[in-house]
TrEMBL record:
Coiled coil regions, renumbered to chain: none
UniProt similarity note: Belongs to the connexin family.
Keywords assigned by UniProt, alphabetized: Cell junction, Cell membrane, Gap junction, Membrane, Transmembrane, Transmembrane helix
Assembly: A connexon is composed of a hexamer of connexins.
Protein's organism: Takifugu flavidus
Record protein name field: Gap junction protein
Length: 263
């Protein structure tokens, strides 16, 4: 399977991501995609051919393999990587939509017209919601596949010996998995990297929400501050005008005394 398109996708969305998003992309590409392509596919190889049972009963081998491995680990991880990386394409498409709107607006009203977006790649408005929803979707995908892997295979262990009692096996048959220890190590590695990616996505959501709340609070504070200044300056002007209208107090001429009047 060719994973080159995923590399291009991850490289394109990297410039629109936060610091946590870039770390997430690095882990996905280096520790999940590269390990999957370089090592995991070769470790599993032809799983059904390497699955051995100590019986020659026709159909018993196939039934036992299908019972213990209903879905291949490699194919399950391939679906997981596809579903977890494709939502990043929505962010790139949303930015491309903004750039197209900006281009059409300039063609219609000229280059000196008012811009629709100060920065088409800045996470504001609808792009902010698109980015957050993609993070939620990534968390859901990784958590779902980690649970499916545990539920389908009843854990992340690969026993060396498997007892099979499925029909048409004549009795309890011993079956053996090729390279069980190596497969166990790679399975635990992929599960741990998935959990790390879930943790990083949660941290990134908290970071985006906290940053947005802080900006809203700062904008509200700046809006309230000029209003307070205007009110205080208005009251100061009213007080000064009132003081100007008050007449100056002049000393009154005292009334003549009674003795002076008679004389």
């Amino acid at each position: 399977m060719n994973w080159a398109f995923l590399q291009g996708l991850l490289s394109g969305v990297n410039k629109y991501s936060t610091a946590f998003g870039r770390v997430w992309l690095s882990i996905v590409f280096l520790f999940r995609v590269m390990v999957f392509v370089v090592a995991a596919e070769k470790v599993w190889g032809d799983e059904q051919k390497d699955f051995k049972c100590n019986t020659a009963q026709p159909g018993c081998h196939n039934v036992c393999y299908d019972h213990f491995f209903p879905v291949s680990h490699v194919r399950l991880w391939a679906l997981q990587l596809i579903f977890v990386t494709c939502p990043s394409l929505l962010v790139v498409m949303h930015v491309a939509y903004r750039e197209d709107r900006e281009r059409k607006n300039r063609l219609k009203y000229g280059d000196d017209c008012r811009r629709l977006y100060q920065n088409t790649g800045k996470k504001r408005g609808g792009l902010w919601w698109t980015y957050v929803l993609t993070l939620v979707f990534k968390i859901g995908v990784d958590a779902t596949f980690v649970y499916l892997l545990y539920h389908i295979y009843e854990g992340y262990d690969f026993p060396s010996l498997i007892k099979c009692q499925q029909k048409p096996c004549p009795n309890t048959v011993d079956c053996f998995i090729a390279r069980p220890t190596e497969k166990r190590i790679f399975t635990i590695f992929m599960v741990v990297t998935s959990l790390v990616c879930i943790f990083l996505s949660i941290i990134e959501i908290l970071y985006l929400v906290g940053k947005r709340c802080r900006e809203c609070f700062a904008a509200g504070h700046h809006t309230h501050h000029p209003m307070t200044n205007n009110i205080s300056s208005g009251s100061h002007l009213m007080e000064s005008s009132t003081l100007k209208r008050v007449p100056k107090c002049t000393p009154e001429t005292p009334a003549p005394s009674y003795s002076s009047a008679i004389s």
